[in-house]
Amino acid sequence: MRVALAAAALLTAALPARAHDDGATSHDVRVGSREIVWTVDAGVLELARVVRIEGFTPRLTELREERLRAAAAEIGEYLRAGLRLRVNGRDALLETGPLEPVYEALPPTDLRLLGRVRQQFRFRSDEEIRRIELGTDLFTAIVPSPTAMFTIRWDGKERQEVVFAPAELRYRAETFDPRWWVGALQFVRWGVHHIFIGYDHMAFLLALLLGTTRFKDLLKIVTSFTAAHSLTLLLSALDVVRVPGRLTEALIAASIVYVAIENFFVSDGRRRWLLTFGFGLVHGLGFSTNLKELLTDRVVVPVLSFNLGVELGQVAILAATFPALAWLRRTSTPDRAAPLQRRLAWAGSVPLLLLGLGWLVERAVGLEFMPL
Fold first, then answer.
1. What is the pTM (predicted TM-score) of this model?
2. How far is the C-alpha of 94 from the C-alpha of 100, rounded, in Å?
3. Tens of pLDDT along 13-42?
4. Which of 68, 86, 149, 154 allows an S-S link to 133, with CB 3.0 to 4.6 Å?
């Protein structure tokens, strides 16, 4: 027995003092309908550098379980302070649960040493859990970018993530299914919904439509608008481009005002796709403001899916309005078609201009008086 202990001590002493001191943590998060249980595994060596463990030295063989349990309160407080949890958009306070010592084998011997601890935390919700945000910055003060390995279990489904702290993960009940197309369909639906409740985007499309007489020109406009807002939507979602939301919303209102005024002077919309591309960049930033509230742990697939939903919504609006305007033009005699087109453009642009001006003043000054 003494020979085995001596051999173990020699092996431990031969290991570099920081062999396990990489700051890696493991996180097991189980999400129920009204409860979250978050269990963290952390290394003793790292904990000894941030929490005082009486009588501890960097050799694993010298840590006894009673010394670890004596520091359980301090360990639990440190770990809890390094975790962040938001449930349904609100900060959630974790309750500290039991601490369990974790023994590790020391090859080539069968000796097991106390190398890690397992700390449980719990949160009980008063409402059904629909959205969660998990964050960790454990050991970032002593180790650059420590690894955090997450296993999240929710409604019979499981995901595994590996991130570098400080990091944040976001999940929604609707998109937690690991099959990518399930979440993609949800983002398509949200994209369609956003267009139909985004009255400023809808007003901009209608203002463009009023000044366009040919389907080929309309196709160019829609294509340039799509390409532009797809670009800024993706860049903004990836945090490559950052523009204050208030400025973006004011610029969207300004784009409505500009196009509505232009409808009084422009009778040919052949080159309007160039102008639309520039305004589309601004509208993409507006789309991203809403998208960021929905993003979870993925970016590319949700952005593309959300964008597809936006396009489907736009096509639905144009498909419902353009044929009606085209029919009115066809029912007119050739000598009256052009005057009728101008009157339609003017009559439709007046309310859109007033809406745009109201939104512009409201968003630039910070007032709230518009009904939409």
1. 0.61
2. 17
3. 333 333 344 788 899 999 999 999 999 999
4. 86
